[in-house]
Structure formats: C-alpha cells, structure tokens
Write a structure and sequence with these properties.
Strand content: 5-15%
Order of helices and strands: HHEHEHHEHEHHHHEHEHHEHEH
Helix content: 40-55%
Strand order of the largest sheet: 2-1-3-4
Number of strands: 8
Number of helices: 15
Oligomer: single chain
Radius of gyration: 21 Å
Distance between the termini: 41 Å
C-alpha cells in the first residue's frame, strides 16, 4: 500500500470525494482540531500540509516566519487549495494563525473559524471553555452544511475516529519489536495519509495494512532512533535515517503519536467527551506550559521503544519548541540518552543533514546491537 502516493495525491482525493458525496471539505491547521464535529456534519476534514513550491507571493503577506507557514500561504494564494470550502484554526501556533488569517482575508467566500482551546489545559475551567467553543463550532458547521447534527451523528463520528486511533496504535506497537517490520518513513506516511483521507475509508486500509505487516519477516538490525520536535509534513528525514542504516522507531510529534494517542471516552455529553479527549492528549511545547509533562512522556517513550538515541528537530523560527528545548535536553542528559539537535525547514538540505546524521549514528554504533549480545559481554 503506497501511503506516500496517497499523500501526494491528496488534492485529487479530496476533489473526488467532494464530487462523489457532495459534502464540504474543511482544512485544519492544528492537530487540536476536533475533526469528529466536522465529520458528524458530513464534511471531510483534511490537514493543510506544507509543500515547498516556487514562491513569489508569501513575502508580501508574511515575513520572517517559519517555512511551513510561508509554504501554506503560498499554496492558498496560488490556488492549490481552491477546492476547500472552509478552514479552521485552533488556538496554538501564532505563526500558523498568520497563514490562516491570510487565507481567510484573501477569499471572502471561504468559511473560516477560529477555535479557542486554552493553552493552560489543566485549569478548572478549561474543559468548560473548550466544550463551549466546540458547541459554537458545531453550530457554525450546521449553518455551513445545512445539516442538523444529532447525537447519533456524533456517536458515529466518535466511533469511526476511535477505531482509527486504535488501528494506528496497533501498527505503532509493531515498532516496539527488536527488528520491527515497520519503517519510520512508512509509519509517518501512513499517519499523514490518515490526516487527509476519510477516516472510514482509511480504517479499511489500516486493517489490511496491519494484517500484512504482522506477517512480515523481521527487518535487519538497525540503529533505533526517536524523533522529537516540531510538526512535520513529509518523510524526508525518516528516509535519510533509513538510508544510513537507522530507523525512527517512535516519535512524540504533535502530528505523530500524539495525534492518535488517546480515544474519546463515551459520555452523555458528547461535546464534553470530545473536549476532555483533546485536552487530555500529549501536549505540544506551547500547551505543555505549566507542569512540563512533555519531557517525562518523551523519556517513557524512549524506554518503551528501546531507543539508541534521539533526534531533536526544531522548525526554524519555532519559538515554542525553542523555549522548551532546555527541559527536553535536561531529561535526555539525565537519562544518558544520546541526542542530536538541529533546525530544519520544509525542505531538508540532504547532503548536510545526511553528513550530520551519519556522524551522530556512528557515535552510537558501539552501543547498537542489543540483538548481538554485546551488552552481555559487559555483564549488563
């Protein structure tokens, strides 16, 4: 199953879905977006993905911002997302909000909604504020689609999305194996495709993929790495790592494992159940601003997936992840986990990045082969 091709063909997929169903397509910018609400209203939620193309537009509207924001702005203003009926931005990255605002201001017919989700997710009133915002968004979606969303519609959407997250987690569990049959690039392409497809259709592909992956022969022994940092939009980094003999066996990215980490627990108040799910997921650097739980989550993943080292990849100009780095570096050092920190844009400089990764991975080789029994020689 070529999930990378599904990601590349996401525009054609959405257009075909729209023609086939007559439904609306809603583009979202942040993984905190409650897709279930749009899905219950009969719309197709799709993540707006950055892709670098010749750009002569974004400088007029956005200056000195991160590359994903500039690329997304360019894609909207150049008409690549002309099939989208609406866009929603959830309180989060302020630079991504700029792309949302430029897209909305340059197309007065485009439905747009700014959804507030508290940065302080643990406050006593956070769940009530979030539930209220979800209700307002639901009302707006009913206006856009002309459909009255029932409790049965919400229940169906929640079931489809819970099933989707369960299947993604089952695939992810295969990466715990010593010689995992699932490569990091394959997993990330799978998740990216999941973010731009109808979840009901994707669930069928995931079930088939899971059955096939479970029957695969074990992969060769590879350096096991963890990916930490900003959101990603492609698998360029994962593919470079694999070309050098490594494998990213786990990530803690906002658009990676955090995207499918937890389910919605059934409640009589469906919107409150959704609010609690999105407030309870592993948080990004911006929203992990009170108790700093993210570093401990990173450490627990590193142990669960038996990593040899970590890659901390921050988007250029990503201030939330820049200000959070001290806490991540601190726990990696305290737990004696080797790590390599670098900044990246949408496009990786392949030669430079490959050279840096190769140097880092060569440092790990003496401690690599858990499977060959090297540690037993030292009585560990």
């Amino acid at each position: 199953m070529d999930f990378k091709k599904l990601v590349e063909d996401r525009h054609e997929y959405a257009k075909a879905w729209k023609k086939r169903t007559g439904g609306k397509v809603i583009g979202w910018f942040e993984p905190y977006f409650p897709e279930e609400i749009a899905y219950a209203a009969g719309a197709l939620p799709v993540r707006v993905l950055a892709r670098h193309e010749p750009d002569y537009i974004s400088d007029k509207w956005i200056y000195a911002s991160c590359y994903p924001v500039r690329d997304i702005t360019n894609l909207f203003l150049s008409g690549r997302y002309d099939y989208i009926d609406g866009i929603v931005n959830v309180e989060g990255c302020q630079w991504m909000y700029n792309a949302f605002e430029v897209a909305a201001n340059n197309n007065e017919k485009l439905f747009n909604f700014y959804l507030f989700l508290p940065d302080y997710t643990d406050a006593p009133t956070s769940k009530h504020a979030t539930r209220s915002e979800f209700q307002v968004y639901l009302d707006r979606m009913e206006e856009l689609t002309g459909k009255k969303v029932t409790e049965a519609d919400l229940d169906h959407a929640i079931e489809v999305y819970n099933t989707n997250r369960m299947l993604l987690r089952r695939v992810n569990e295969l990466r715990r194996m010593e010689r995992t049959p699932v490569l990091g690039s394959e997993m990330m392409n799978l998740v990216l495709a999941d973010q731009v497809m109808d979840k009901a259709e994707m669930n069928k592909l995931l079930a088939d993929f899971l059955a096939e992956a479970e029957e695969r022969a074990p992969d060769k022994d590879r350096i096991r790495l963890m990916l930490i940092g900003s959101e990603t939009f492609d698998t360029g980094l994962e593919e470079l790592v694999e070309a050098l003999g490594g494998n990213i066996v786990i990530d803690e990215l906002d658009n990676g494992t955090s995207y499918y980490w937890n389910n919605v627990f059934p409640m009589k108040d469906r919107l409150m159940a959704l609010a609690l799910r999105y407030l309870g997921r592993p948080h990004c650097a911006l929203k992990d601003n009170n108790w700093r739980r993210r570093p401990q989550h990173i450490f627990e993943l590193s142990e669960d997936f038996n990593i040899d080292g970590a890659l901390v990849a921050k988007q250029v100009y990503c201030h939330p992840h820049g200000s959070d780095s001290y806490a991540v570096w601190k726990i990696l050092r305290e737990r004696n986990i080797p790590y390599h920190y670098f900044e990246r844009g949408v496009k990786l400089p392949a030669d430079e990045t490959s050279a840096r990764l190769e140097a880092f991975m060569n440092m790990l080789k003496p401690g690599l082969n858990h499977l060959s029994g090297w540690h037993k020689a030292f009585g560990e």
